[in-house]
Amino acid sequence: MTNLRRTLGRTALGAACGLPAGFAALAAAEPTAAAVRPAAGPVTVVGGAAIDRTPAAVKDWAIRAFGESDKLALQAGILAVLALCAVLVGVLALRHRRLGTAGVLLFGAVGAAAALGRPDSGGPADALPSLVAAAVGAAVLHFLATRATPGLQPTDPGPDPASDSARTGSAPAGSATTAGSRRGFLVAAGATTVGAVAAGASGRALAGRRGQAAAASREALRLPPPASPAPPLPAGVAVRVPGVSPFTTPAADFYRVDTALVVPEVDVSGWRLRLHGEGVTRPRTYTFAELLARPLTERYATLTCVSNEVGGPYVGTARWLGVPLAELLREAGVRPPSQGGRADQLVARSVDGMTIGTPVEDVMDGRDALLAVGMNGEPLPFERGFPVRMVVPGLYGYVSACKWIEEIELTTFAAHDAYWVRRKWARRAPVKTQSRIDTPRPFSRPAAGVVMVAGVAWAQRRGIRRVEVRVDDGPWQEARLAAEGTVDTWRQWSFPWRATPGGHTLTVRATDGTGAVQTERRTRTVPDGASGRHGVFVTVTAP
Fold first, then answer.
1. Tens of pLDDT along 192-201?
2. Among candidates 234, 460, 223, which has minimal Cα distance to 321?
3. How confident is the model at residue 168 (pLDDT cuts 50, 70, 90)?
4. Is 64 helix (H, G, I), strand (E, B) or coil?
5. How far apart are CA 268 and CA 152, in angstroms?
6. Do 310 and 316 touch, CB atoms closer than 8 A?
7. Alpha carbon of residue 166 to chain centroid
8. Exposure of 445 by Cβ count < 10 A (0-12 exposed, 13-18 middle, 19+ buried)?
């Protein structure tokens, strides 16, 4: 029992030294990262490195488990691991000051290496936040460990550091010296924590000021009217059934799946887009003003994430405004492979280092591939890719929808694998035919009688010809289709079901414009998107 108390005491004292030191280290990194580059913060760069090295199947599980909170979950996990390590280093520092200090410096070296290894690294300066954090953390840990054990030498294996004699040298427990040491240690730990809070707050304020210029540039932006407006949506494009996703998804509700732990905030005054590579006879660099001065095209298009499970939420439709991408490529001298072009892949690079590889043939085959600057009549939100993003209908986002784009390189699939392809996802990924039941919700309890079953179906570039619903193991029954927006948008549907009391399974399937019926074969999202039919179980109650 005595040994257990000593162990617990040593652990508590180590935590009292290590946790404030770790907190001070992260707080010191905040103003440093704000001065250098917000994305160079230790948690951000280590989190980014973790994302880059996580197998595709694990990423897929994280998106299913945490949804759009996957990045928050990752950051919380990193902080939890750092807290545990801080406790362990604190315990070590009570007996071996130099080893404790070395442990903190090792974490700083890991952070610096992660910062320099990021694809969007700004150079050696990106290592500074991690190095400053390590230096501050090591100094604070040494200071607190010394205050906690004033009577011990750094490597003294003498009295247990959790005991009163370890904290006061030879003074007995309860003596005035012991009480003074405790008070001094608590004051030091408290002062450290207060100082860390102040440093962290100043860093966040500085980072906020850095983002104000980007926010101001977006706020001041007035999008010009499109030279080619989106054709008016036909009457009856919505089924008017409560619970169905709206035909046009508000920007605030649009799904977000990416690897950016810190959303890039780009000031348009300094933004540039470079176009170069294989088959580019006239390389160009565009400013944002130059793009806006071109004739803009407006189109409705449904985007889908490859991580969307059958019946999942990562799909949405918006009215996009932008520059036709094929026009820029032709002006640069690019020809598609079918016309003898040398490049078969367009690699788009984001300001955060993400690379997205898109087939050149798909971009130049006549579809409305855009460098989008607007969404639903407003400038792109930062989370959706401001100032410019790619939109290529008919392809999953990981091969078409580069956000925060700053470079387009023409190359070949043989010469370069983009970010997700290096992680075992397919090089080419046309969107699969899918349908979803939005209402009734799974495990709901509708009353017997006529129950409206409704949802959406999509098969971009092919369109939806038919949607059918099956109740339990009964026959497939045709649903009523809403009017089609375009072949690049989803289509709403509804089915009046005469529901009888009891448990029932509702299943939906779609037929695309080519006549192909949505497969019932279930596959996971890796490597080229999920397939299968969506079903929901409901319990119908007696009237």
1. 777 767 766 7
2. 223
3. very low
4. helix
5. 58
6. no
7. 48
8. exposed
